[in-house]
Structure formats: structure tokens, C-alpha cells
Design a protein that fits this description.
Blueprint: H1 40-58, E1 63-64, E2 67-68, E3 71-73, E4 78-81, E5 84-86, H2 91-112, H3 115-119, H4 122-139, H5 142-150, H6 155-184, H7 186-194, H8 200-220, H9 223-228, H10 230-233, H11 235-238, E6 245-248, H12 250-253, H13 281-286, H14 299-302, H15 323-334, E7 342-345, H16 347-351, H17 360-381, E8 386-392, E9 399-400, E10 406-416, E11 422-428, E12 433-437, E13 443-445, E14 449-459, E15 468-477, E16 480-490
Antiparallel strand pairs: 1-2, 3-4, 4-5, 6-7, 8-10, 9-10, 10-14, 11-13, 11-15, 12-14, 15-16
The chain binds iron/sulfur cluster (SF4) (2 copies).
Length: about 500
């Protein structure tokens, strides 16, 4: 499970590959209790998460022309992106959009590793920036949490567990509601909430989803990233030695060793005569008492939410949360060493000092991405708000009317993808004759809806050019032609 994908380190003991931190030797769930992270990157991630959560909880309320800005209604097969409605007829655009997104994610991962997981994945944001923070607030930092876990069920434990249960479930319920709002729109959701009587099934579904979210954040946690997430599992094939990931600089850090008392000065010269007063960093590193900078303090391991030791190299469990970077930087600062022993870096930059190289794989993905993006832009630009399909009604050739005219019955399917009802009229363009709508005097298509309208085309025999005559029918909206439809009008052979 613990498979190293890129970073090689000069460490012989590789027993870490034989197990995952979340499962004990006895095969039981091993709860990771990470130390509360703090530092520059953690602060940046907190700010980013606040913005992310504001957007997540605000978007369902935003409307464009009375429609949600985003909606992914799988049941009704209706998708809205940035206020533009996509119907099943547009599904190929949606499909191309999804493929483009996947290629983008692959390219992004090849270059920047799992930066998405650490900074933008909803699972990490909710787990680390919402539920974990609440846990620190209720239970205290990692030592207090461990104490609480091992203590018997006394008043304090019952109180803390009850508060945590209620808060976790309430937030899970809120998240489930907002996910539903993304599926069915906020208006519908509010309708369900204000009139719950007829929507007991929806409420039950919501409670089931809330329980799933609650289970994930209460118990399952980092295993969603390690065991379930397919993106995480792909890292082994997506990352290479050029990928920028959270990495331990093994060249600088190894061989690791505990900080000795003598080294506890600004100056670490072997032959220090100045009792730590010397600040000559160059000299310090030339004549360092210990060869490696890692003081084996395990601060990076203590903060890791997936329980790994990043010094073993890049591992599938690493979600690039950067907590170990902050922890190690704080340690390096406290022992007067340069920060960045753990940092965003590629294996090649650590071992060979080379910057990001645009290799063949990156070029190939970029070319495919460019092609897909061009195709997507073309499809979106040429996408029409109106879908028109005209077919002759099956099983009918022509009718001879009492006044001698010939009539053909057609079936017109109109899809209105706009946010307004549209009244259409039909006019014959290249022949004189009559169009008669079946069953209605008006051809109206409601917003984001479709209609099937049958109509007769009636032509005098003089208009016919044989048993098959091409007729052009203009489709008008408010006297403005929106489309010309062509149809084959069938008549008897005798009129040729
Ligand atoms: S190794 Fe570092 S970046 Fe990776 S998950 Fe652990 S703390 Fe986060
Ligand atoms: S925090 Fe830094 S110094 Fe401490 S064990 Fe980790 S890599 Fe080594």
C-alpha cells in the first residue's frame, strides 16, 4: 500500500511499505491523531478554505435569468454551467467538457502533483479545515485527544463526545442540503423545506446522505483519500521525477540524527571557539558537526493527517497538505538552519538541482488539452439555443384534399434552451401554399422545455415538381426568422 512513487532515499529500512498507518498490526482501525498544524502555509490554506467555503455555500443562491448559476440535475438530465442550460441534446459538449477537465487534472498532476488534494479537494477542505478544527476546539490538541480516547466514559468524555456528535451531524446535514441544492436547485430545496409533507422521501434521502457524510468525517476520515479516492490511486502512474510534490530534501537531511547539545548554537562549527556567538552560516555548513540537517524530531510525522513519514519519500497516502512543511520549517528556524528541508520540490530538483523540465509527456498532454479546449470552445460558440427537428409523420405519404390540393403531415420537434417562453410561427418560403397546425392555433415552447407539433403543408398541384418537392419552411420568432427548415413534400406521380 505504502508505495513510493518518485523519491529515492538512501534509507535501507523500507518496512514502512508493508503497512498503512491507519491499520494497526492487529488489523484494527488505527486512529491518526495529528498535532494541530501551524505556520505560513497552514494560514494560507485556512484563508483559501474560507474563500472556498464562502463560494460553496453562496453559489446555490446565485441565479442567472431566474435559473441557478450551476445545477447538476442528473435525474432530469439537466445541467447548468454559468447559467447556460445543457440538455441531453448537448450531452456531447458536456462529455467533451468532462474529458477536457480530466486531461487538465492529469496535466496538472504530472507537473504539480497532488496540490489539488491539499488545497481544493472538498474532502480535505471539510475534513482538515472544518471538522478537524472543530475537533481541536472541542477535544483539544492531539495529546488531549489521545487522553480523551483512552479515558473511561466519565462526565467530561460524555459531554465532549455529545457536543462533537451534535456539531458534526449538524454540519453533515448542512453539507448534504447544499449538495442537494446543487442537484435540484436552491428554490426546489427551499420548497421542500417549507412544505415537507409531500417530500418525506427527500427528507429520508437527505438523512441518509447526512449520515454518510457524518460517517466519513467522524470515523472514515483520511481513508477516503487513501483507500477510496481513484485520483489518489492514480498518483503512482501520474507522478514522475519532474513532478513538484511535497518532498523531503534527503540530500540535505540525511543522515539524520538527534540534535546534540554542542550543536545548540547558531554556529555549528566542529571546532567552535566562540561559544555560539559566530553567525557565519557558510562556515557552519562547511564544517557542520552532523552531516544531515534532519534532527529526527518527528515533528513532520506528528502533524501528518495520514500518519506517514514524508522522509520515506513520496507516498500514495500523502495528500500534499503541507502540514509537514510548516512543522519542519518551525524546527529548522528554532535550530537556526535554513527552512525548506521539506518543501514543494521535484525529485530531480533535489538530487540534480534542475528546475522543472518540460518533457515529452507534458508536451503530449498539453497538445491534447489544447485540442480539446479548442473543440470545446468551438462547440460552445456554435451551440444554438434552439433545437429543431422536422420529420414526415411516419406511415403517411400524402392526402388529396376535396379542393384538389395535396397535403403532407409533418412532425416538428422544438427544444427551447432559453430562459423565456417563445411563440413561433411557420411560413412557406419557396412555394405558395398553406401551413395548418394540428390541434392548436399557436406554436409556443415554454422556457427550457420542448414540444412536438404536428402540422399540415397544403400545396396546389401546380406547385409540385414531381412526386418529391423540396419545400423550405421559415421558423419565425416575433416576425424574425430564426431558421429555415427544409422538407421533402410527397405528391402523386401524376402531377409530374
Ligand atoms: S506527508 Fe506532509 S504533505 Fe503529505 S499528507 Fe503528511 S503532512 Fe501532509
Ligand atoms: S520535522 Fe524536519 S527535522 Fe524534524 S524529523 Fe521531520 S524532517 Fe527531520
Amino acid at each position: 500500500m505504502s508505495e513510493t512513487t518518485t523519491t529515492k532515499i538512501p534509507k535501507k529500512n523500507e518496512s514502512f511499505r508493508d503497512s498503512v498507518a491507519t491499520i494497526s498490526k492487529e488489523g484494527r482501525r488505527n486512529f491518526i491523531t495529528p498535532k494541530k498544524p501551524k505556520g505560513r502555509l497552514y494560514n494560507m490554506r485556512t484563508l483559501f478554505s474560507i474563500a472556498y467555503l464562502i463560494i460553496f455555500f453562496t453559489l446555490p443562491f446565485i441565479k442567472v435569468n431566474g435559473e441557478p448559476l450551476f445545477m447538476f440535475n442528473v435525474l432530469e438530465r439537466k445541467f447548468i454551467f454559468f447559467g447556460v442550460v445543457f440538455w441531453p441534446q448537448d450531452f456531447f459538449i458536456f462529455g467533451i467538457g468532462m474529458i477536457t477537465f480530466v486531461v487538465f487534472v492529469i496535466l496538472f498532476t504530472v507537473v504539480f502533483g497532488r496540490v489539488f488534494c491539499g488545497w481544493a479537494c472538498p474532502q480535505t477542505i471539510f475534513m482538515e479545515m472544518v471538522f478537524r478544527k472543530i475537533e481541536y476546539w472541542i477535544d483539544g490538541d492531539y495529546t488531549k485527544q489521545k487522553q480523551l480516547r483512552s479515558m473511561p466514559w466519565n462526565g467530561e468524555k460524555i459531554r465532549k463526545r455529545t457536543i462533537k456528535f451534535i456539531v458534526f451531524f449538524a454540519i453533515s446535514f448542512l453539507i448534504a442540503n447544499f449538495f442537494l441544492a446543487y442537484l435540484i436547485s436552491m428554490d426546489k430545496l427551499i420548497g421542500y423545506i417549507t412544505h415537507p409533507g409531500g417530500h418525506v422521501g427527500t427528507l429520508i434521502s437527505l438523512l441518509i446522505f447526512s449520515t454518510v457524510f457524518f460517517f466519513v468525517y467522524w470515523w472514515f476520515r483520511e481513508q477516503a483519500c487513501i483507500v477510496v479516492c481513484p485520483y489518489g490511486r492514480l498518483q503512482g502512474v501520474l507522478l514522475d521525477k519532474n513532478s513538484i510534490v511535497v518532498a523531503y530534501d534527503h540530500k540535505r537531511g540525511e543522515p539524520r540524527g538527534k540534535l546534540k547539545k554542542q550543536e545548540d548554537h547558531d554556529c555549528k562549527c566542529v571546532d567552535c571557539k566562540e561559544n555560539g556567538a559566530c553567525k557565519d552560516l557558510d562556515k557552519k555548513f562547511e564544517t557542520l558537526a552532523r552531516p544531515g540537517d534532519c534532527i529526527d524530531c518527528l515533528a513532520c510525522v506528528r502533524v501528518c493527517p495520514t500518519g506517514i513519514d514524508i522522509r520515506n519519500g513520496t507516498q500514495l497516502e500523502c495528500v500534499n497538505c503541507t502540514a509537514c512543511i510548516d512543522a519542519c520549517d518551525a524546527i529548522m528556524t528554532s535550530v537556526n538552519k535554513p527552512t525548506g528541508l521539506i518543501r514543494y520540490a521535484s525529485e530531480n530538483s533535489i538530487t540534480k538541482g534542475v528546475k522543472l523540465k518540460v518533457n515529452t509527456r507534458i508536451k503530449a498532454y498539453s497538445a491534447v488539452l489544447l485540442l480539446l479546449l479548442s473543440l470545446l470552445v468551438f462547440l460552445l460558440a456554435s451551440r444554438s439555443d434552439l433545437d429543431v427537428r422536422l420529420m414526415r409523420t411516419a406511415g403517411m405519404a400524402y392526402n388529396k384534399l376535396p379542393d384538389g390540393r395535396i397535403a403532407n403531415l409533418f412532425n416538428l420537434k422544438l427544444v427551447n434552451k432559453t430562459h423565456e417562453d417563445i411563440d413561433f410561427t411557420l411560413k412557406l418560403e419557396n412555394v405558395s401554399g398553406e401551413i395548418e397546425l394540428v390541434g392548436t392555433g399557436k406554436l409556443t415552447v415554454k422556457k427550457e422545455d420542448y414540444t412536438n407539433q404536428q402540422f399540415f403543408v397544403k400545396l396546389k398541384k401546380e406547385e409540385l415538381q414531381g412526386w418529391k418537392t423540396l419545400v423550405k419552411i421559415g421558423l419565425y420568432e416575433d416576425n424574425k426568422k430564426v431558421k429555415t427548415i427544409e422538407a421533402k413534400f410527397i405528391g402523386p406521380e401524376v402531377y409530374k
